[in-house]
Amino acid sequence: MPRWNKRLLLSPHQFAPSQEDLIVVGAFNPGATILDGRIVLVVRIAEQPREKRLGQVGLPRWEQGQVVVDWVAEDNLRWVDPRVVEMRDTGLMRLTFTSHLRVVVVEPGWERWEEVGRWYPQGPLESYGIEDPRIGAVEQRLLVTYVAVSPHGVASALAQTDADLQFDRLGILFPPENKDVVIFPESVDGAYLAMHRPVNATRFSKPEIWLANSHNLLEWGNHRPLAIPSCPWNADRVGGGCPPMVIADRFVALIHGATRPEEAGKVGRYAAALLVLDRHRPDRVLSVTPLPALAPSEPYEIDGFVPHVVFPTGWIVKDEQLHIFYGAADTHVAVASVSIDQFSLMVT
Q1: Chain centre to alpha carbon of residue 87
Q2: How many whole angstroms separate alpha carbon 184 and alpha carbon 323?
Q3: CA neighbor of 168 nearest in space, from 140, 144, 192
Q4: Who contacts 160 (Cβ-Cβ below 8 Å, separation ≥6)?
Q5: What share of the chain is helix, strand, coil (3-state, %, to 5)?
Q6: pLDDT tens, position by position, 135-175
Q7: Domains, in order of start, for the chain
Q8: Which tens digit of pLDDT belongs to each residue from 255-280?
Q9: What is the pLDDT of residue 348?
């Protein structure tokens, strides 16, 4: 495995909340691209109510362009994990936070950055928030896949952006429950290609990543699973991470996986692995790194809102270096860098 040069890049305290009655608890899971020579990150910002009430838990949601808080009796809640609660009277789930997206320009060297835009949830299908953007260039279009969360569940959606960094929604790609969608940078046999992660709540199978094809980016079919080996590092979850890129005439993607939780109410350990696919037959898996290529080791990856998490969501190549941007402990943005030559050895 390459020796990564890791760096903590962004933290929650560096971002102002969207409203005075909220606090930022996470700045993480960024999409990444290079636009007009600038390194652009789209960062997920998670917020919770600032107020605390004895015997109650505040559950935020978006309504008509602002965050409102539903206060629920604590004895009516069962904590699934730090992120999710279940209503005992209805059996329905709620998030303990809500998320929106901030657009950030980062200078090479990582010493300086500037917030240049905000993308807020809109409409009933995004009322619990928008999360985990991935950015890919497809036929000169800059596409953003993201997660839309609402009372209807967790869906995958598509938007596009441009030099002005506007957020133009194109619609839902995959209905609940589906997430971690990444679109390939080029078509195959005249069709667009995406990886997605159906959430198998009834576990007839191990966690899986699926492929799908489309002729217009909105209507998807020809769904089939990828043959990814089941290992301890992905025994609980597996899904797309960074959008695929072409290296050595192969599609190369970084995927994430999670171990099974050691106890109820906890979350497993998240790490990342390298997935290599045949460029002409992308449903053919050429290799998956047998051990995680990128795993929690630094204090900011181990301690946080969800401990022991490395969750890659964007990567760029600049000045012969590959830079992987990822969420650390569901709290921070970090970057791991390596020479593109050293990284290419893992592919070939």
Answers
A1: 26
A2: 19
A3: 144
A4: 141, 142, 143, 144, 168, 170
A5: 5, 55, 35
A6: 998 888 899 999 999 999 999 999 999 888 999 999 999 99
A7: 8-347 (2.115.10.20)
A8: 999 999 887 777 889 999 999 999 99
A9: 67
Q: How far apart are CA 143 and CA 162, in angstroms?
A: 9
Task: Please spell the DSSP secondary structure of 215-227, one letter per residue.
Answer: SSSSSEEEEEE--
Return the closest-CA partner of residue 100 out of 155, 50, 165, 29. 29
Looking at residue 268, its amino acid is G
The Cα-based distances of 342 to 181, 217, 295, 348 in angstroms read: 27, 34, 18, 11
| Best CA proximity match to 208, nearest among 184, 178, 228 | 228
Rounded to whole angstroms, what are the CA distances from 167 to 119, 122, 140, 233?
7, 11, 16, 35
Per the omega criterion (within 30 degrees of 0), is the bond before 177 cis? yes
110 alpha carbon, distance to own chain's centre = 21
Token pair 């133009």 in the structure block, residue = 168
Q: Which amino acid is at 108?
A: P
Which of 224, 184, 178, 213 has its CA nearest to residue 197? Answer: 178
SS3 84: strand
Whether the Cβ atoms of residue 49 and residue 64 lie closer than 8 Å to each other: no
Q: Tally the C-alpha atoms within 13 A of residue 106's C-alpha that lie toward its C-beta.
A: 26
pTM here is 0.95
From the number of C-beta atoms within 10 Å of its C-beta (0-12, 13-18, 19+), residue 176 rates as middle
- Nearest to 111, CA basis, from 40, 41, 7: 7
> Which candidate, 287, 285, 284, 295, places its Cα nearest to that of 328?
295
Q: How far apart are CA 156 and CA 188, in angstroms?
A: 22
Are 241 and 311 in contact by the 8 Å Cβ rule? The answer is yes
> Which tokens go with 340?
């593109």
